[in-house]
Please model this.
Amino acid sequence: MKKIIAILAVMALVIACFAACGGKTEPKATNSDADTTAEIVENPAPTGDTLVMGTNAAFPPYEFVAEDGSYAGIDVEIATAVAEKLGKTVEVKDMEFDSLIPAVAGGSIDFVMAGLTVTDERKETVDFSDTYATGVQVIIVKEDSDIASADDLEGKKIGVQAGTTGDIYVTDDYGQENVSQFNNGSLAVQALVNGQVDCVVIDNEPAKNFVAANEGLKILATEYITEDYAAAFAKENTELHDQFNAALAELIADGTVQSIIDKYITAE
Ligand code: ARG
Model:
């Protein structure tokens, strides 16, 4: 009898472990403040029916953690629609923006969708899908700021999200000593609210979200730089790259992409 109880106990443990380990991993409620790089390195390379999408989920409306703790946003929904066409599902990995390109190039994630701008420099490391959206780098300031356009940024403290195109442009234009890097856009905006920086340079749609969420901020009417967003793949992964582009083209043609964008961005 004792033996049977012992066997049953072991079986129960095994089942419990399977349930815990095999279940769908819920996203963490926290955003990219946590260092998820170590976790990613330890994970085996993705295979099979799941496509692992690396992103930095503090970038609404493209990617963010919804109130119920799930990942939401334009990129998440487009990726899900693409994966569905390929008969796969998407698993979102929330990482530091900075580590996304090395991660996809190294094969620990399948692709990046992160409001990621196509640049020649990034093209040296990864391949980009066709473009699915346009972004504009804008300048956020306090309502009473004396900064009225990019011409006034000389010698000002500029907050950016580390490794983004905004970071790269202002570092080039105004010098590294004037640029403060933050791990994500909302931290940069918090620094502006607290007076640690004089402005934040960031993509326009996230900028609108951050300004709506914080009192006393505004976006300058002058646009800084316009750019294209695309998904990124490891250069060797031409198979996924081609499949992704084919699915994306269909989703653009049948209006799915536009309807996803319209769901999150209301036209002015
Ligand atoms: N478009 C900019 C870039 O590619 C910023 C993207 C930031 N994305 C994010 N998910 N945090 O550099």
Summary: Residues 135-226 form a domain with the D-Maltodextrin-Binding Protein; domain 2 fold (CATH 3.40.190.10).
